[in-house]
């Protein structure tokens, strides 16, 4: 056995994060020699030193210790590093102890010695701020550690003694600045020198101060001044401390960054840069004094945001010389980040980079970015330099170059930038188009998981739209390890909700509406969008099994349903949601006006369905948290809504009065119709698909559930048809046209390669990438079980289809590696391969199988399990097998009816 993936609050070795609730988790992996299948007991030790000589907590050997989320009874001290390790005892007697992990607390409740400071010049001029200090040699010899606690608005980049501190960018990130502001902690022990030292901080506009919001936004969104707060704490071996804190003795000067903005990019004039400005040897005698200031935010707290980093570097694949005479780099992949380049131009030369997603008529194109300039301008100083922006990011595949005398591919590097999330899932099939579709969804997640789950990374928007975030959450949790990322987003959502009497804004953080921004004046309270309040917490619980994370978000869930119920009561108490603005099935193809983004499904029907669904989720969450009265209350509310919907929207025989794909899909997915009427709705949905030429017409609401509902209700072949369609409208239509991310619209690009609309047309919009959830759960068969969350128990139920010869998924779940795949052989036999991790149980369901014909790892399987360590049972036309930790190859010839069903397609 091996104990690995030790995480603190779902983070690996977190430095300076908010740790008000300590949650420890780990994974135990089996090895070839491991006989144990389950954790019999475990022990957690926490120490003040890496050798564990100074234990501060010892759980002792405990049975039933939860490796998904263990909370030790310990009082943490501020600014302290703790080391921890886990020992696991297996049920067959093996014992394994992990390597040490660590976490380090931030300032916690300690008061700040530093004060907010601001440059003393025009607030539109980007500042450099610095402080020179001394660390005498005798004290430097006694240095134990050094940390900087820092935040700034809008964005900051920290240097110490001429070196950039850390490898993250765009700090302090994007959050609801009005209500909370997070600070970061950096370990600078190796950068502090004996004698003279200097701290340097550059500030940029970012989300806080720059142009941002609807209709292009406007500057000074949250505040109109640059400001900095910092403390360098040098700790000596005897425990004494030297603190260098922001105060009026710090100095400032104009930065060579002449402009920065999230939408418009960055202008940097190297002729105005100050060489070695953050080093101790720099002469700052002509710099001006900073001024004390105040920042209007309700509280300052340690970080929750994952660091934003360069997660990959890509070289351009081609230099394109366009018919318009342009020089354009093609990076071969639509991505989020920027280009780093080598500059060798003469002094005063303007190097101009413009970023775009697509070419039109073989020329560079930016019109779909609307007002976003998306450019990087660099004025060379005549010296060789490696250049990248500091305070912006772009969504792009193509980069237009101007001012470069000799363009060489090797001089340019595409920096892929997003929050630091580990990829956990992958899918491969026999169809390269399906494989590319999976990658497109993964790249869409990478490009839009930049501190908040944004809608798009390129145009003048880039907001945390709640609807996109909730429909994609299950897919996100397969693709990447996402609980900490979504938890921070839910903190923002809760802060916004508390100021809206339970309602949830369209975007989180909320964007204050501008004149004529459209939708409504309040910009909150839309069904499916606001239901992020219930869907995301429940999704996190089912996928990661952290009950305390669910508990911390329960009030958010409850308050959202209470808000809807108040709206219901104010409009007659019909147990329907028939008031207010709703996006409905946004961008569906069945609306009356093909130019309108509103779909054909009654928006109040969708609102009422989500009213019911969210009430169901609150009832489920209450039951998990043993809030039994609330579970009964919200369960009853859901039943009342369901009854009202049946009366309002369905005939007595179960026919949907709203004849759209989305209406029927939502009814089935959200369990709105009685069991005896489900088959009628399924049959009607299949008939509607045939009426629509077996093509989808769904939008943001119907699409995420469409294939799930079909496969769960006996129409798996129809789900595969929708997946594998490659003409408009379909997922593979975009793939065949060369898409490398998911589009906002089904026809974002027309068949002739021309872009269909410039007003609202992103080529990196991940919502429709939610099909990947179906690919994991039904094509490949990996399904969580809510009653044993975090994949402590799960179902393996792949649903093969002969239009593919194989499909397989690999998923590093919170409980360990799960693999599930299938292959159809030329003679019709089926082979399934499964990997089940330690301390878990999986129920494998084999379609169209006969018990006597099934072999497991080459041995015959029977009800008695005579030749196998696993046993199975016949369940109708399927065989069910319970599997514990191990790897399995299962083979059989499926029933004749199964083969015929495939051939008919």
TrEMBL record:
Start and end residues of each Bacterial alpha-L-rhamnosidase N-terminal domain: 142-312
SUPFAM superfamilies per UniProt: Six-hairpin glycosidases (SSF48208)
EC numbers, comma separated: 3.2.1.40
InterPro entries per UniProt: 6-hairpin_glycosidase_sf, 6hp_glycosidase-like_sf, Alpha_rhamnosid, Bac_rhamnosid6H, Bac_rhamnosid_C, Bac_rhamnosid_N, Ig-like_fold, Rhamnosid_concanavalin
Any one GO biological process: carbohydrate metabolic process
Keywords, ordered alphabetically: Hydrolase
Stretches assigned to the Alpha-L-rhamnosidase concanavalin-like domain: 322-418
Sequence ranges assigned to domain Alpha-L-rhamnosidase C-terminal in this UniProt record: 781-854
GO molecular function, one term: alpha-L-rhamnosidase activity
Top-level taxon: Bacteria
Record carries keyword Hydrolase: yes
Broad EC category: hydrolase
Residue ranges occupied by any Alpha-L-rhamnosidase six-hairpin glycosidase domain in the UniProt entry: 423-779
UniProt keyword Transmembrane, yes or no: no
Catalytic activity line of the entry: Hydrolysis of terminal non-reducing alpha-L-rhamnose residues in alpha-L-rhamnosides
Protein name: alpha-L-rhamnosidase
């Amino acid at each position: 056995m091996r104990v690995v993936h030790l995480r603190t609050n779902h983070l690996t070795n977190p430095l300076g994060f908010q740790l008000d609730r300590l949650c420890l988790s780990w994974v135990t992996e089996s090895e070839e020699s491991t006989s144990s299948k389950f954790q019999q007991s475990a022990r957690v030790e926490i120490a003040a030193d890496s050798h564990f000589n100074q234990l501060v907590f010892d759980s002792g050997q405990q049975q039933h210790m939860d490796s998904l989320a263990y909370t030790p009874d310990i009082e943490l001290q501020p600014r302290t590093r703790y080391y921890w390790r886990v020992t696991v005892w297996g049920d067959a007697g093996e014992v394994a102890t992990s390597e040490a992990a660590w976490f380090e607390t931030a300032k916690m409740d300690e008061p700040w010695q530093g004060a907010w400071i601001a440059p003393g010049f025009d607030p539109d001029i980007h500042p450099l701020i610095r402080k020179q200090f001394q660390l005498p040699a005798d004290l430097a010899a006694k240095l134990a550690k050094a940390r900087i606690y820092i935040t700034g608005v809008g964005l900051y980049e920290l240097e110490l003694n001429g070196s950039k501190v850390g490898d993250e960018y765009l700090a302090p990130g994007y959050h609801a600045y009005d209500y909370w502001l997070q600070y970061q902690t950096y370990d600078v022990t190796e950068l502090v020198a004996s004698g003279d030292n200097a701290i340097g901080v550059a500030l940029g506009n970012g989300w806080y101060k720059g142009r941002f919001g609807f209709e292009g936004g406007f500057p000074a969104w949250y505040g109109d001044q640059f400001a900095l707060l910092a403390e360098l704490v040098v700790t000596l071996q005897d425990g004494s401390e030297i603190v260098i804190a922001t105060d009026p003795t710090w100095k400032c000067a104009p930065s060579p960054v002449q402009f920065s903005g999230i939408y418009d990019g960055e202008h940097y004039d190297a002729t105005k840069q100050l060489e070695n400005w953050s080093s101790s040897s720099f002469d700052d005698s002509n710099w001006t004094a900073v001024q004390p200031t105040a920042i209007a935010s309700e509280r300052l707290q340690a970080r929750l945001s994952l660091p934003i980093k360069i997660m990959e570097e890509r070289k351009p694949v081609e230099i394109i010389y366009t018919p318009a005479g342009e020089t354009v780099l093609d990076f071969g992949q639509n991505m989020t980040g920027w280009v780093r380049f080598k500059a060798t131009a003469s002094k005063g030369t303007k190097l101009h980079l413009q970023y775009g997603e697509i070419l039109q008529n073989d020329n560079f194109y930016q019109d779909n970015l609307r007002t976003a300039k998306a450019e990087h301008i660099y004025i060379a100083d005549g010296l060789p330099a490696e250049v990248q922006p500091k305070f912006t990011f772009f969504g792009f595949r193509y980069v237009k170059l101007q001012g470069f005398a000799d363009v060489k591919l090797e001089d340019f590097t595409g920096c892929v930038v997003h929050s630091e999330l580990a990829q956990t899932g992958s899918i491969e099939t026999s169809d390269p188009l399906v494989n590319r579709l999976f990658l497109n969804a993964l790249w869409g997640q990478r490009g839009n998981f930049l501190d908040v789950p944004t809608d798009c990374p390129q145009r003048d928007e880039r907001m945390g739209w709640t609807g996109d975030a909730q429909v994609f959450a299950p897919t996100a949790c397969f693709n990447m390890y996402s609980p900490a990322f979504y938890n921070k987003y839910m903190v923002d959502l809760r802060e916004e909700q508390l100021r809206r009497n339970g309602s949830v804004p369209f975007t989180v953080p909320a964007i204050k509406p501008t004149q004529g921004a459209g939708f409504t004046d309040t910009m909150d309270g839309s069904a499916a969008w606001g239901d992020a309040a219930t869907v995301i917490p429940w999704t996190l619980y089912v996928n990661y099994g952290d009950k305390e994370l669910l508990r911390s978000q329960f009030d958010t869930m409850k308050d959202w349903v209470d808000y809807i119920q108040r709206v219901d009561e104010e409009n007659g108490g019909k147990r329907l949601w028939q008031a207010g603005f709703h996006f409905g099935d946004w961008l569906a193809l069945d609306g009356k006006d093909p130019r309108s983004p509103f779909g054909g499904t009654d928006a109040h029907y969708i609102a009422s369905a989500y009213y019911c669904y969210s009430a169901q989720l609150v009832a489920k969450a209450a039951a998990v948290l043993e809030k039994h009265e609330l579970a009964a209350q919200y369960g009853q509310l859901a039943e009342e809504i369901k009854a009202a919907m049946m009366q309002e929207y369905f005939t007595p025989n179960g026919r949907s009065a709203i004849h759209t794909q989305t209406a029927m899909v939502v009814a089935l997915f959200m369990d709105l119709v009685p069991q005896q009427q489900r088959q009628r709705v399924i049959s009607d949905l299949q008939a509607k698909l045939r009426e629509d030429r077996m093509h989808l017409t769904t939008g943001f609401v119907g699409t995420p559930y469409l294939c799930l509902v079909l496969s769960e209700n006996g129409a798996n072949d129809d789900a595969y048809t929708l997946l594998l369609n490659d003409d408009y409208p379909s997922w593979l239509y975009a793939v065949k046209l060369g898409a490398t991310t998911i589009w906002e619209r089904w026809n974002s690009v027309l068949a002739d390669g021309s872009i269909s609309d410039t007003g609202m047309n992103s080529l990196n919009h991940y919502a429709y990438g939610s099909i990947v959830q179906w690919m994991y759960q039904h094509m490949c068969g990996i399904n969580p079980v809510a009653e044993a969350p975090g994949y402590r128990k799960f179902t393996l139920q792949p649903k093969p289809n002969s239009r593919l010869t194989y499909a397989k998924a690999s998923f590093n779940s919170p409980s360990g590696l799960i693999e599930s795949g299938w292959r159809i052989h030329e003679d019709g036999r089926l082979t399934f391969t499964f990997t089940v991790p330690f301390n878990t149980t999986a129920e494998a369901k084999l379609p169209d199988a006969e018990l006597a014909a099934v072999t497991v790892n080459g041995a015959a399987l029977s009800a008695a399990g005579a030749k196998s360590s696993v046993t199975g049972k016949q369940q109708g036309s399927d065989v069910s097998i319970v599997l514990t930790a191990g790897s399995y190859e299962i083979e059989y010839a499926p029933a004749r009816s199964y083969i015929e069903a495939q051939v008919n397609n």
